Structures are given as C-alpha cells and as structure tokens.
C-alpha cells in the first residue's frame, strides 16, 4: 500500500514512516517542518513540504495513496493553555481540510494519532475506551474535536478510521538513530536523560502528595516502536477493507515519576538527587490504559514497552547526540 503520513518529520511520524517502509509499503510525508526535522525522514519516503490545512499540498501528497496516517499536530499541553486558538486551528480545523481532500480523492482509510488527554480526569483506572471524554485542557479538547469530525465523516461519506489514543509515548529506534526531539521538551524521560547527558545530577518532580504508593504521579509508557507497529497493523486492517475502531495504546501498567527518574539514573549509571516541587495543575494522579482492545482487534502486543527497554533505547538516542551525530545508518529493526 501507499500511505500518506502527515507529521512524518516528527517523533511518532518518523518512526512510523521507517517501520512502514521496512514492512514493504510506500510512504509520502507531508510536514511543515515547523516542529519536525527533515533529517528524521527516511530517504526512501517521498516528501512534500506543506500544511494539512493547505488543500493543494494535501491533494499533491494524497496522489495514488491508499490510506493516511495523520500524526501532524501540536502536542504541548501548557502551550495549549496559553494559546488555545492555535491548538483548535492546527489540531481540528486544518485537519478538516485533510478529511475533505480524502473524500474528494476517494481515500477512505485513516489512522489518527489521538491521545489519552481526551479522557481528562478519569473516574477509574485502567481507562477503557468507552470511558467518558472530558478533556481538561485545550490540547485534549482539540484532539477530541477531530475525533468527532472523523465520526461525522464516517457517518456522512463512509470514512473508515482507526483512532489510537496514545498514553505516554517514549523510547527511540533501538539503535539510537531516531527518537524524540521536541523543543521545548516536556516529556519526563527525555528531560531526565537530557539533564544527565548535560552533567546535571538533580531533577525536580512535580508533586509528591498524590494518592499513589510513593506520592508521585503514575503514567503508562508505550514504546514508540510498539506504537508504530500498531499503526502498521491499523493501516493494513483498513486497506484490507475492515472497519475502523477506537483503541487505547498503552500497556495497562503504570510507573511512578520517581520510578522513571530512578530507571533513567540506573541506565545512565549515575546517582541523581530528586527534589519535589508543587503539583502541576491538571495532572491526574494515575493514568493507565485499559489496553485489551488493540490486542483483540489488531493482534497487537507491546514488545519493547517495559520501562527498562524504553529508557535504554532513549538513552542510546540521547547519548548518541540525537541528529547531531548525523547518523543515517540503521542497524536492525524496531
Ligand atoms: N508524543 C507523545 O507522547 C504523544 C502522546 C499522545 C498523542 N500524541 C499525538 O501524536 C502526534 C505526533 O506527536 P509527536 O510527538 O510525533 O509530535 P512532533 O511535534 O514530534 O511531530 C509533529 C509533526 O507534525 C508537524 N506538523 C504540525 N502541524 C502541522 C500541520 N498543520 N501540517 C503539517 N505538518 C504539521 C510538525 O512539523 C512535526 O513534524 C500528535 O498528533 C500528538 O497529538 C503524541
């Protein structure tokens, strides 16, 4: 199949592009490079510099495609609170142009990068897919709006979509050649590994008075390679003519922030002083996925999502200098 990957120069998109190519598929990437990296895009993929809100660029990129993987978007919760309009525009209004162009081109298969942020503060954990969606920030709200646009397109013209609600994505391509490079970085694993790489031996965790065993927040981490594998399976399912679905992507097991910092220090063979700051507003105590549906519908199993493997892969990427090392050699698979 030929797949249009929007946001294919970003973290999740670039790993997914490489895995799709390794699985024998053709790929075209559409990305503004506003928050992505041209060097992250595999040389074997076609590349269109453009915006998902630009009908001409989307039309060009969609040519001869069987399916779309829509990863493009803004992802910073704090930024979404400061500038909600930018998030509604980029994560909901512009992608509506993508949907319209898919309808016109007759491409009816879509995999969408959604987020656990659509759930907001859960009533219970693990969170099943049919839990109420009550996002608590504009980022989650903007992603939910596009989920609703997908549902409307499914009703009105027969779009089939696999909506993946990611929990905390982490890790890197196992040889350290592709990974997370957000600016600013808000995710805990690259932040801890980044300070360790820079020689700092102290890290502040937000809050230690949550109702959890060690008092710090608990999150469900999913390796980016396992996520990419789910994408390939979702796309293949749709192109085989099957129905869409909404699936969480997580492991069903949580790790506390303190455990994450300790795992990073262990992997990097350093000792870290942990300090505790105030809670960050809007952080639920525990977010863990009900993770059975993706297993049942897609035959998907996370293979690299134990915390130790995630951190080791992420450390190889950080220690190797990210793109700075100029690596194009790929040793092994995901
Ligand atoms: N990384 C996570 O932990 C996480 C968790 C949950 C959901 N997600 C979702 O996964 C997706 C990818 O996340 P990521 O971590 O790879 O982000 P990223 O910032 O690394 O990549 C996003 C890419 O999209 C591009 N882009 C943004 N707006 C665009 C537009 N209008 N047109 C074309 N390109 C555009 C950026 O230039 C960038 O290359 C996002 O949609 C995000 O909401 C990510």
Proportion of beta-strand residues: 15-25%
CATH topology of the domain at 2-169 and 222-250: Rossmann fold
Count up the helices: 10
Structural class: alpha/beta
Distance between the termini: 20 Å
Strand-and-helix sequence, N→C? EHEEHEHHEHEEHEEEHEEHEEHH
Poorly predicted residue ranges: none
Q: What is the subunit organization of this protein?
A: single chain
The CATH architecture of the domain at 2-169 and 222-250 can be given as: 3-Layer(aba) Sandwich
- The coarse silhouette is globular
User: Briefly, what CATH class of the domain at 2-169 and 222-250?
Assistant: Alpha Beta
Give helix % range: 25-40%
Strand order of the largest sheet: 3-2-1-4-5-6-11
Mean pLDDT: 96
Q: What does the largest sheet look like?
A: 7 strands, parallel
Q: How many extended strands?
A: 14
Bound molecules: nicotinamide-adenine-dinucleotide
Task: Tell me the radius of gyration.
Answer: 19 Å
| The CATH homology group name of the domain at 2-169 and 222-250 | NAD(P)-binding Rossmann-like Domain
Structure, explained:
Helix 6 (188-197) crosses helix 10 and helix 8 (257-268) crosses helix 10. The two termini are 20 Å apart. The protein has helices at residues 11-22, 55-62, 77-82, 84-105, 138-157, 188-197, 224-239, 257-268, 292-298, 307-319; strands spanning 2-6, 26-31, 46-49, 67-70, 109-115, 160-166, 168-170, 202-206, 218-219, 221-223, 245-249, 255-256, 273-277, 286-287. It is α/β, with parallel strands linked by helices. 38% of the residues lie in helices and 18% in strands. The protein has a domain at 2-169 and 222-250: Rossmann fold (3-Layer(aba) Sandwich). The protein binds nicotinamide-adenine-dinucleotide. The site of nicotinamide-adenine-dinucleotide has 31 residues, from helix 1, strand 2, helix 4, strand 5 and strand 7.
């Amino acid at each position: 199949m030929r797949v249009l990957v929007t946001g294919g120069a970003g973290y999740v998109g670039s790993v997914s592009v490489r895995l799709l190519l390794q699985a024998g598929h053709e790929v075209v990437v559409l990305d503004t490079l506003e928050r992505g990296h041209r060097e992250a895009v595999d040389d074997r993929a076609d590349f269109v510099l453009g915006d998902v809100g630009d009908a001409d660029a989307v039309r060009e990129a969609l040519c001869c495609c069987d399916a779309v993987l829509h990863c493009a978007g803004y992802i910073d919760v704090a930024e979404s609170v400061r500038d909600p309009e930018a998030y509604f525009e980029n994560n909901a209004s512009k992608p509506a142009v993508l949907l319209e162009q898919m309808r016109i081109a007759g491409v009816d298969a879509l995999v969408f990068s959604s987020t656990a942020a659509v759930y907001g503060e859960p009533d219970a954990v693990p969170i099943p897919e049919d839990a109420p969606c009550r996002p608590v920030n504009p980022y989650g709200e903007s992603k939910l709006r596009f989920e609703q646009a997908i549902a409307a397109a499914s009703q009105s013209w027969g779009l089939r979509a696999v909506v993946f609600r990611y929990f905390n994505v982490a890790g890197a391509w196992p040889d350290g050649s592709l990974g997370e490079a957000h600016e600013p970085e808000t995710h805990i694993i690259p932040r801890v590994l980044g300070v360790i790489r820079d020689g700092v031996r102290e890290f502040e965790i937000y809050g230690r008075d949550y109702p959890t065993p060690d008092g710090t927040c608990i999150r469900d981490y999913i390796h980016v390679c396992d996520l990419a594998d789910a994408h390939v399976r979702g796309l293949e399912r749709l192109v085989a003519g099957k129905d869409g679905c909404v699936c969480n992507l997580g492991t069903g097991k949580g790790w506390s922030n303190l455990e994450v910092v300790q795992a990073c220090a262990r992997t990097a063979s350093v000792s870290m002083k942990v300090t505790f700051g105030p809670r960050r507003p809007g952080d639920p105590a525990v977010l863990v996925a009900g993770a059975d549906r993706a297993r049942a519908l897609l035959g998907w199993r996370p293979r690299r999502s134990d915390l130790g493997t995630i951190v080791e892969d992420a450390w190889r990427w950080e220690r190797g200098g990210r793109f700075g090392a100029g690596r194009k050699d790929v040793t092994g698979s995901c």
